[in-house]
């Protein structure tokens, strides 16, 4: 029962096939029979978990299990304490209010890799990084939450799902783990395993 942790690069579809010639997971993961447990937008980067176990996919991706996911969002503007508090308390979106989570203004991550192409930053407008943890998985939820409080999202990286993180994975790299037994509320931290993919300096442990 394979379980794969992948650092999905920017501009890659979170699926294995595409009829339009765009980059897909098949370009970096040559393992057959695994599928994403949850999605990550084409213009977002970071952790995607792949498995062939339908129950484990549901445990990770179904919002009813409330598995936490942590993102780092680079936003346009200078976030105020009120905006950070609103993100943590939950905001009203077109499909209803979001669950409470955690949000904090943080420095630019030490493990951050360059994005290709780079984001467009306006010299006259400041930008900042927010660490945001949620327990849902709505379509483009983090971007919509940031926009709802007046902080357009410039770059979005998913760092963590449950106890799994991007640590040691550069963009396009992946690591196969032993899938854990399903537990009622949480999943155990997996042991380290061999990493596959681009030979680049891996990200440092997050601050």
Explain what this protein looks like in three dimensions.
This protein has 207 residues and is an alpha+beta fold. The protein has one domain: Pseudouridine synthase, CATH 3.30.2350.10. Helix content is 12%, strand content 29%. It is built from 3 helices and 12 strands, in the order βββαβαββββαββββ. The chain has helices at 54-61, 81-89, 141-148; strands at residues 2-8, 35-36, 45-51, 69-76, 92-93, 96-97, 102-106, 127-134, 153-161, 164-165, 174-178, 195-196. Strands 1, 2, 3, 4, 7, 8, 9, 10, 11 and 12 form a 10-stranded mixed β-sheet that branches. A two-stranded antiparallel sheet has the order 5-6. The radius of gyration is 17 Å and the shape is globular.
Q: What's the CATH H-level superfamily name?
A: Pseudouridine synthase
Oligomeric status: single chain
> Architecture, CATH level 2?
2-Layer Sandwich
Total of domains: 1
Radius of gyration: 17 Å
Q: Based on Cα principal axes, name the global outline.
A: globular
> How much β-strand is present in the residues?
25-35%
Number of strands: 12
Keywords summarizing the entry:
single chain, 207 residues, Pseudouridine synthase, 10-stranded mixed beta sheet, two-stranded antiparallel sheet, 3 helices, 12 strands, 12% helix, 29% strand, globular
What does this entry show, briefly?
This protein has 207 residues and is α+β, with helices and mostly antiparallel strands. The chain contains three helices and twelve strands.
Give me the secondary-structure topology:
Blueprint (H helix, E strand, L loop, with lengths): L1 E7 L26 E2 L8 E7 L2 H8 L7 E8 L4 H9 L2 E2 L2 E2 L4 E5 L20 E8 L6 H8 L4 E9 L2 E2 L8 E5 L16 E2 L11
Parallel strand pairs: 3-9
Antiparallel strand pairs: 1-3, 1-11, 2-3, 4-8, 4-9, 5-6, 7-8, 9-10, 11-12
């Amino acid at each position: 029962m394979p379980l794969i942790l992948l650092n999905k690069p920017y501009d890659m579809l979170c699926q294995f096939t595409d009829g339009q010639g765009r980059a897909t997971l098949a370009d970096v993961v040559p393992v057959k029979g695994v599928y994403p447990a949850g999605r990550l937008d084409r213009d977002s980067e970071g952790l995607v978990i792949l498995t062939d176990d339908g129950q484990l996919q549901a445990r990770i991706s179904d919002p009813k299990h409330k598995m936490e996911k942590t993102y780092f969002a680079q936003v346009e503007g200078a976030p105020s304490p009120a905006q950070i508090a609103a993100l943590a308390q939950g905001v009203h979106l077109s499909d209803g209010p979001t669950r409470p989570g955690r949000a904090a203004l943080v420095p630019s991550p030490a493990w951050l890799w360059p994005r290709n192409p780079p984001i467009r930053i306006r010299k006259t407008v400041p930008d900042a990084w927010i660490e945001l943890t949620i327990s849902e998985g709505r379509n483009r939820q983090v971007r919509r939450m940031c926009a709802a409080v007046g902080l357009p999202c410039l770059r979005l990286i998913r760092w963590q799902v449950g106890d799994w993180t991007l640590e040691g994975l550069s963009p396009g790299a992946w690591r196969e783990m032993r899938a854990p037994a399903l537990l009622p509320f949480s999943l155990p931290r997996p042991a380290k395993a061999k990493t596959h993919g681009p030979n680049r300096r891996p990200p440092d442990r997050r601050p």
